[in-house]
Design brief:
The chain is mainly α and 147 residues long. It is 71% helix and 0% strand. The chain has helices at residues 2-8, 24-52, 58-89, 98-119, 133-146.
């Protein structure tokens, strides 16, 4: 009976909570950085052992380890830059403060009421003329300053 209970359990249970998956470009850069960093660490160990044993390979290994360290640092920075670029291109969730949100909501209500009043000034149902381009530019400037 107990044997049947053990076999009924799943081997792999997916955890619903957890960190979200990294975007593909960021994950690719991270894997590349880990590979380069691990190779650099192996080179450093080999260079150390070559130096301890007074091998002729000690100096060339030291030079290649220094070069690999520069490349590894660059690859780690590449992960950071790729992550920032991905966030900027694919939408950062912007959460303004509640004060800014409330004032923007109030301003939108005022603009909506003004448009409604402009669209139907005498209650005749005739649509108003569209806003001039200068007015639209001024509204766009005001919105960009508010954000």
């Amino acid at each position: 009976m107990e044997h049947e209970a053990r076999s009924a359990r799943q081997l792999w249970v997916e955890d619903e909570k957890g960190r979200r998956r990294m975007p593909d470009p960021v994950r690719t850069a991270a894997v590349r950085a880990v590979m380069i960093t691990s190779i650099t660490l192996v080179q450093a160990v080999v260079a150390f052992f070559c130096a301890v044993t007074d091998s002729w390979l000690a100096f060339p290994m030291l030079l290649s380890t220094v070069g690999s360290t520069v490349v590894a640092t660059w690859s780690v920075l590449d992960v950071w830059v790729t992550r920032q670029v991905w966030r900027q291109r694919n939408g950062v969730v912007s959460e303004p403060s509640s004060t800014a949100r409330a004032s923007r909501r109030e301003r939108r209500r005022e603009q909506k009421a003004a448009r409604a009043a402009d669209a139907d000034p005498g209650g005749h149902g005739a649509p108003a003329a569209p806003a001039a381009p200068a007015v639209r530019r001024a509204e766009a400037a005001a919105l960009s300053e508010a954000a």
